[in-house]
Amino acid sequence: MSELKSLKIDKINLDSSTIIDEIKVTYQHYGKKIKSNPVVLVIHPLTGNSNVSGKNGWWSKIIDSGKVIDTEKYAVIAFNIPGNGYDGVLFKNYKDFNTGDIAKIFFYALRKLKINNLYAAIGGSIGAGIVWELAALYPKLIKNLIPVAGDWKSSDWMIANTTIQSKILDNSSNPIEDARMHAMLCYRTPKSFKIRFSRSFNKEKEMFNVQSWLIHHGNKLKERYELKAYKMMNHLLGSIDVTRYGSSIEEILSKIDSKIHIISIDSDLFFPIEEDFLTIKIADSIGVKIEHKIVVSDYGHDAFLMESEKISKLLKDIF
Fold first, then answer.
1. Do 24 and 143 belong to one domain?
2. What are phi and psi of 282, to 5 degrees?
3. From CA 44, how far away is CA 59, in angstroms rounded?
């Protein structure tokens, strides 16, 4: 596993008018040297982290030696979203942050690493939202913009889900477990549940296997995740909005220099594909070309983690 490294950013002015004197940003570096090789930035999903490659890397089937994002060819940088708890950094004032703030922090961190441009920025779920935020704020930074199973804004559906998650996290006696069980209903699909469980019953546990599976996922997350981290990340998920600074999405898309490659999951209940179709329609109306690639899967949102072979095929032409 790549070593966890850190750097410090001074005087961060958040959109909420909160000033943070110093913030620690942690990251992992995989593959080639930064100085003389193309750099790929990877931004993790809600309960993920910077450990994207190698033995326990959550995207190691996509990012590794000989994989589609080849660490023998690229310098791969993966930041931890501040407040995700993986590095011990947690915030009580998590509501003061939004995903635009996170994008600014990452930009300053890239500058500290003397990275002035990126061959690609790729992220899944909330990570996709943050790569959109980066491109909107710094339109010349990224050559290939690759949001996967994510969007440039939190839809009404997303805001509704994060509101329910927030209520569970604030009010439940088992907040992490209960919130995770609820979230799994958005990460997967009814069809995937039917295929996997088919109303099978566990006589030993005296419950349906789908119930046992949900409880397992809740307990598993509690073992590795902090409540403050979950609250922070859930809040950020509901804050994605590249238009918050006053520019329309048409104006933003027209200024982004990147080649935009949107990867959607056809069965995604969390970031529905219809939202990506709308973005592409808007882009077409102003003469901006977006390459739209679709993963056909029964798994729903989690296909970006589970369908590595399909994702790899869609990324092949870019990398």
1. yes
2. -65, -45
3. 9
* Separation CA 170–CA 165 (nearest Å): 9
Residue (of 238, 45, 240) closest to 127 by Cα position? 45
CATH number for the domain that contains residue 164 = 1.10.1740.110
What range does the domain containing 176 cover?
A: 157-236
User: In sequence order, what are the residues at sequence separation of 6 or more whose Cβ sits closer than 8 angstroms to the Cβ of residue 203?
Assistant: none
pLDDT digit string (tens) for 115-167? 999 999 999 999 999 999 999 999 999 999 999 999 999 999 999 999 999 99
Beta bridge partners of 31: 75
Domain end position, chosen among 236, 266, 286 = 236
For residues 212 and 205, what is the distance between their CA atoms, to the nearest angstrom?
8
Ordered alpha helix ranges (H), 2-44:
none
What secondary structure letter does DSSP report for 39?
E
Q: Is 188 exposed, middle or buried (CB count within 10 Å of its CB: 0-12, 13-18, 19+)?
A: buried
For residue 290, what are its two tokens? 């977006």
The reply to whether 271 and 125 lie within a common domain is yes
Residue 156: both structure tokens together? 């009404």
CA-wise closest residue to 55 among 2, 115, 114: 2
**Predicted confidence (pLDDT) per residue in 24-40, tens digit:** 999 999 999 999 999 99
Give Cβ neighbours of residue 160 (< 8 Å, ≥ 6 apart).
none
Smallest CA-to-CA distance from 315 within 291, 284, 281 is with: 291
Give 122's strand partners: 42, 146
What the block records as the tokens of 53 is: 């490659």
What count of Cα atoms within 13 Å lies in the side-chain half-sphere of residue 264?
21
How many domains does the chain contain in total?
Answer: 2
Tokens of residue 119, six digits: 């061959």
